[in-house]
Amino acid sequence: MDATKGPTAGRPARAEDTALELLVHGVGGTTPEEMLGDPRTVRITGDDTAAVFRRADDIDAEQRPQDYRDKPVPEAYVWCNLTSGNGSRALWLLLLPFMVVNLAHWMRPRARRHRGRTVSAYGLLVRLTGLTLTVVLVAAACEVSLDLAAWQCAGTRACAQDHSWLRFLSPQLFHHGWWTQPGRRLALAALVPTVLTLLLWFLSHRTWSAYESAQPMPRGSTPEDATRTALGRPGFWYGRRLVARLRAAHTAAGLLTVAAAVGTSAARFDRAPGGPAVLDVLGRVLDALLIAGACSVVWVVARRGRSERRLDCELDETLVRRLPLAALALLVLTLVYAGWSRPSWESAGRLPGDATFGGVVLVQGVLVVALAAVAHVLHRGSPDSRTVLHGLGGPAVAMLACALGGVMTGGVAQRVADWVDGTGGTIAGPPVLLTWQASVIPPLLVVLLVLAGWLAVRTSVRTRRGLAQVRSDYADESEDAARTHQIAATRARAALTDRAPLAVGITSAVTMLLGAGALAGAWATGEVPARAAEGSGAVVDGAAQAAQALGSWLIGFGFILFVTWGRRAYKDLSARRTIGILWDVGTFWPRAAHPFAPPCYAERAVPDLTWRMATWTRVTGGRLVLSGHSQGSVLAAAAAWQLPPAMRGRVALLTYGSPLERLYGRWFPAHFGTDALEGLHREVVCWRNLHRATDPIGGPVRLPGRSGPRVDAPAFKDPLAYGRTALHPLPAPILGHSDYQADPAFEQERDRLLGRLRPGVPAPRSGAAGEDDATDVGGVAVAVDSERQAPPDGPAKGGQGSSGRSSG
């Protein structure tokens, strides 16, 4: 159906006849000039971070409706600066464990209404897991600065001689120096983890103000049954209160960790026979205050989750301000206590880091197991065959977050120990557990290599099986074996995305088993693997030494490679598109489990889109096609859910290369599951989803029943031409995830969608569901007839054929 047909035909054009196509780009970003196909663009609204652009010729389109009766007015929403920019933003990748554990919060399985307490327990367990990651990070900083540098190296003559910046702390080299006493060395070194904690607090506060402080449209509270997904609730994209509470709690936890690292060492010395009684009492009082502070932090984290049913602008001012300040005051008292003169105190061996790291790892394991039990209960109560790992995706990802935290912190400790102990054997080194954790990395890599080999074999088999399908899709062409293999291989590689859950599940399970083995080995032997294996035979001894040495280097090399890749992803567009989807999925979600996670760009982008759609439709009364590619389709769906139900009657949804079901529906079933997507299909006037078999990210929406074919178009043919033709004299590229607009079928699908979104006509609302009716929106009646959900009249021409139908 052409956009000019229907109620508008045969009469002068009016403002409400105007149609707007709001384009939302995806991963990798782009420029408004590329999106609009015009070098002359003008910013309509927004700022340098995110804005809406139009072509210069379309600025006054609403005043010239007769010029746009047969085409929509294109607008481009550009949000790439929310997730990319200069290379310094690659440092956000250091916060990756926090982002991953935050993802686990949103991977909760779909739950029935009576499972409210179980859902709350799931969120609580994830928040507590996130708290342990903060403790691990700060404890690693304490291990580097307090233990390796101030306690071990500065207390050893040979090590201090090799590092001039530590000589003033050495009692052997700087006799009777004020800083040479162990307690004072520890108090001075405590500045490093303290500054790190305060820096995390500052970054969390600053990024909230810069990226996430945009308020959604004011709306009343949403009834329980008003929407099938929480993404439609008024307060979903504004979690200011929870983030502030968590930021206060995690900051206090970091400061208390530093205080414990300094204070417990001094208290242990004071409790020895002959120690000063006053300092012994003071140490016990400080220990009690530390325990009370830790209990307060856990209570704050456990007390409240997200509030989404209303826009929660209130802050717990007393808690947010006083909890970190109280922890900072306790840290200052601890530093003063540790710095008290103790002439007979000498540093030897390691600080008690094994117990700290071992206890945290054990707690993390217990939390992940409990999280898996809760997720299983939720999934069993409301099963969905498309949900990844039978509902255990969240626990698996939480396990990977803990592993990432251990690898990153352990890698830093290992590399600093190797650098400080340049001559070898002068200091005891990092805690035994960190060495055991590094030693299990080679076996984990072997498992990953086997998994990668299996996936490669499966891809090769799938490629061979797909050759016949490619020949069938291009039966009218002269066969080229190389070209056929290229197309089949691209389709097979694109299908690897659907194998990701299996890879994540296996990696998580093996990581948990190896981590448990490392913890047991460290606690049972009290020695590093190489020493623990002495006397066990040449083979075992050699394997232990090789694993320990190789693991130590791999953990450091992996950390450096990780940061390098992250920086490249921000500077290289191709790398950005490859790595960016994982990063953009992680930072799409609000910070609900960890306040130090990278900022959520959707808390700015979704309100932007919602405000733009609501104000434009309210002022003009026109039609609007929300056109989203890749991650932009997820933003488009989230913005459509945020519109009032009546206003959705003016909005059509066009998605292409969309991961809505393939990634989000499977990994986040509580928010993008089948029920949620079916609800979106019913609430917008019409929705069309375009996809290709060669796309590794996007895919069909797969709604059940008649809704599926109505939403999903037949798969686009890719490449457009098998060989050289009159239209394609040069070899046509395999487009995969990009350039959907290059297919002639794209414009045809969009025009059909626009034609089904009819302009407003005055008509009373009458009839039952499925009959012709009209919905009143802001005083303008929008006609919604039974044809609006009908599929287009036959397949699109020019870009779809037998290959598209069979691949779909």
TrEMBL record:
Transmembrane ranges? 90-107, 119-141, 186-203, 248-269, 281-302, 323-340, 360-379, 391-413, 433-457, 500-526, 546-566
Question: Which SUPFAM superfamilies would you find in this protein's record?
Answer: alpha/beta-Hydrolases
Listed Gly residues bias regions: 796-808
Oxidoreductase listed as a keyword: no
Question: InterPro entries from the entry?
Answer: AB_hydrolase_fold
Keywords of the record: Membrane, Transmembrane, Transmembrane helix
Q: Which residue ranges does the record annotate as region Disordered?
A: 757-808
Protein name per UniProt: Integral membrane protein
Q: Which organism is it from?
A: Streptomyces sulfonofaciens
